[in-house]
Amino acid sequence: MADHNDFGKKAEDLAAGFLLKKGYKILVRNFRFQKAEIDIIAEKDDLIIIVEVKARSTDAFMLPQEAVTKSKIKSIVAAANHYLEEFNKNSEVRFDIISVLPDEKKNLVIDHITDAFEAFDAG
Predict the structure, then answer these.
(1) What confidence tier does 7 reach under pLDDT thresholds 50, 70, 90?
(2) Cα–Cα distance between 83 and 106 in angstroms, integer?
(3) How far apart, in whole angstroms, are the C-alpha atoms of residue 21 and residue 36?
(4) Which domains, from first to last, does the chain contain?
(5) What values do phi and psi take at 105, rounded to 5?
(6) pLDDT in tens, 77-113
(7) Of 39, 14, 18, 44, nearest to 29 (Cα)?
(8) 52 vs 41: CA distance, rounded Å
(9) Local structure of 92: helix, strand or coil
């Protein structure tokens, strides 16, 4: 596996652990629908939380969350809708982004952006 894939997997594992410590229940990881993938689907306070994990080795060019484009949002929303239908979930949905970046000492830092975008942002 390429180094960037290892880093992405490590970031997703860190994000899942972070959410668990915050009281979230992880329902599914790496949920796929057509060409789309949702990194983490969690539940907390009667909400379904769709989490996109973005990791970068540096923020020199852009912050990780800036890589969540309109087309990415559109595919996440489509996959989320499919998940809700497939598993008959009627809960309210929130879309979060967790960014993972190393600090000066190479420690990975998590930034959890709740309610990062709305389903209508995909339009």
Answers:
(1) confident
(2) 36
(3) 27
(4) 3-122 (3.40.1350.10)
(5) -95, 10
(6) 999 999 999 999 889 999 999 999 888 898 889 999 9
(7) 39
(8) 9
(9) strand
Q: How many other C-beta atoms can be found within 10 angstroms of the C-beta atom of residue 109?
A: 11
- Distance from C-alpha of 106 to C-alpha of 34, rounded to nearest angstrom: 36
Helix ranges, the chain (H): 3-21, 70-86
Nearest to 30 by CA among 64, 76, 70: 76
CB-based contacts of 23, cutoff 8 Å, min separation 6: 44
Which residues have CB under 8 Å from 96's CB, separation 6+?
A: 49, 50, 51, 52, 112, 113, 114, 115, 116
Residues sharing a CB contact under 8 Å with residue 46, sequence separation 6 or more, in sequence order:
91, 92
pTM score, whole prediction: 0.89
Q: Are 18 and 26 in contact, with CB atoms under 8 Å apart?
A: no
